[in-house]
Design a protein that fits this description.
- With about 240 residues, the protein is of the alpha+beta class.
- The protein has a domain of about 130 residues: Alpha-Beta Plaits (2-Layer Sandwich), CATH 3.30.70.3000.
- A six-stranded antiparallel β-sheet has the order 4-1-3-2-5-6, sandwiched between helices.
- Helix 4 crosses helix 5.
- The longest helix is centred in the middle third of the chain and has 28 residues.
- It is globular and about 70 Å long.
- The chain starts with 16 loop residues before the first strand and ends in a 5-residue tail after the last helix.
Length: about 240
């Protein structure tokens, strides 16, 4: 009955790069149940980077970019013959499973969770020129997310949740910066991973070894997945330096 399957023959456009973007489903509930620190929880961020490492080991992407509960995966080689249905389903299932596994491995109290954890995923086909612009936009979203997060929890000191949201809707970026500055929070001095997100990509690392022929210790260079907690602002130079880009 394969002829009855919907979208089974839909494939990625030829000669395009793709980003698989995954988002946590109903993670506001999850944050409450795990009692995550607000507005950012370092342990949660670490779990997300562990998911990124699992993605690297399984699918060998060019870049994994993470902020909040969003994961952007820039693929070099397109898996599953480019079948959209297959890529979407496998990545969402893999990421959901990886997050749950890493959550348990890091001793979070899983008994208080009210249900399974899941991520959705979508495919974004891009030309090479559009890749930089896409990630710049996602990094801008991370920056806005940081501003809103700190502003919301600052307002919650004096207002209800509903009132804080109402106030936020009326504020522009300059207003948010002024609000935080007046409360002693300098947004530019917050940790880089909160402002710009985290990146996982390959870079050269030194590996110690032993040369049995020359009977001496040697240092060799290997490409290894690296978690960058201090990402720069995305630009062409950053992407041109990535392996396989």
């Amino acid at each position: 009955m394969k002829e009855c399957e919907i979208y089974s023959d839909l494939k990625i456009p030829c000669s395009s790069k793709i980003v698989v973007r995954a988002d946590g489903r109903n993670f506001h509930r999850l944050a409450r149940e795990l009692a995550l620190e607000k507005p950012y929880d370092k342990n949660f961020a670490s779990i997300m980077t562990m998911v990124g490492i699992d993605i690297f080991q399984e699918f060998s992407p060019i870049l994994v970019y993470i902020f909040s509960d969003e994961i952007n995966i820039l693929l070099g080689e397109i898996p599953f013959a480019g079948r959209v249905e297959k890529i979407d389903s496998v990545f969402s299932g893999f990421i959901s499973s990886s997050f749950t596994h890493n959550l348990l491995m890091n001793n979070q109290d899983h008994e208080q969770l009210s249900g399974p954890i899941s991520f959705d995923s979508r495919i974004v086909p891009l030309s090479t020129e559009m890749v930089v612009r896409y990630f710049q936009k996602r990094q801008s979203a991370a920056w806005r997310n940081c501003l809103n997060g700190y502003a919301y929890w600052t307002l919650r000191d004096e207002h209800s949740s509903q009132k804080a949201v109402q106030i936020l809707r009326k504020l522009k970026i300059k207003d948010l910066n002024d609000l935080l500055f007046n409360k002693g929070i300098k947004i530019s001095e917050l940790p880089s991973w909160q402002r710009r997100g985290m990146g996982i990509y390959r870079r050269d690392v030194e590996v110690a070894g032993f040369n049995p022929v020359e009977q001496k210790n040697v240092i060799s260079i290997r490409k290894k997945a690296f978690i960058d907690w201090k990402l720069p602002r995305f630009g062409s130079d950053f992407f041109e330096g990535l392996e396989k880009f």
